[in-house]
Design goal:
disordered N terminus; mainly beta; 228 residues; Jelly Rolls; single chain
């Protein structure tokens, strides 16, 4: 009887060992199947698109908004001009059509536009330096009113070309906006606004109506140049 019991116990042990080995083999296969290399694509976030180094001041002068073109014109423009009366209001508040003009880029794409570096505006003024130019760069929703800068738009920079003396004919005037760093969000525009500003404490002020002129041509730059 003892021998029979011992033999039965031995059979039970052999059965358990076989079952454990089979179970271990299955688990090993399962582990192997989950250690296969898997490639996961993680989307990358695209930053704002930088503006080109030159933005061209174009468009009709009848009513704003004129165009800030992001691609070089393929032909020369006719000269456009606009008489700006003296303004007694800050550039952001001036809404009288006879006292300002404005231009805008196309609306920014989904990733937005970035404006970084020193920005220089070149534009023509009749009489050269007899009038003081105040110019501003703004980020505005495309649907924002043309004449209203604040509070709808964000002021990026404001610059001045002071009145410094006389001159004959249309001469190039420049306005500098140093160290600009701004993002134009999706659906918004970069806008340029110019006024003929007088009372602000400056010792040399505009003395009368300013005739502003623009339009693409090799001898008459009207542009925003961005230097990183």
């Amino acid at each position: 009887m003892r021998r029979l019991l011992t033999f039965a116990a031995l059979l039970v042990l052999v059965g358990l060992s076989t079952a454990f080995a089979a179970s271990f083999g299955t688990q090993s296969e399962d582990v192997a199947s989950f250690t296969t290399d898997v490639s996961i694509s993680v989307p990358t976030t695209q930053g704002p698109t930088p503006f080109p180094p030159t933005i061209y001041v174009r468009g009709d002068s009848d009513t704003p908004l004129g165009l800030l073109a992001l691609t070089p014109p393929t032909e020369n423009d006719s000269v456009r001009s606009k008489d700006l009366l003296l303004s007694t209001e800050a550039i952001g508040a001036q809404a009288t059509l006879t006292k300002y003009f404005a231009w805008a880029t196309p609306a920014a794409p989904a990733q937005g536009y970035s404006l970084t570096g020193d920005v220089t505006l070149s534009v023509h003024v009749m009489g050269g330096s007899t009038n003081r130019i105040t110019a501003g760069l703004f980020s505005c929703p495309a649907a924002a009113a043309i004449e209203t800068v604040t509070p709808t738009c964000t002021t990026i920079a404001v610059g001045i070309a002071p009145a410094i003396g006389g001159g004959n004919g249309f001469l190039v005037r420049t306005v500098s906006f140093p160290d600009v760093s701004a993002t134009i969000p999706a659906g918004s525009q970069l806008r340029l606004k110019i006024v003929n500003r007088s009372p602000d404490g400056s010792t040399v002020l505009s003395t009368g109506t300013m005739r502003l002129a623009w339009g693409y041509g090799p001898s008459r730059p009207a542009e925003l140049v961005i230097t990183p």
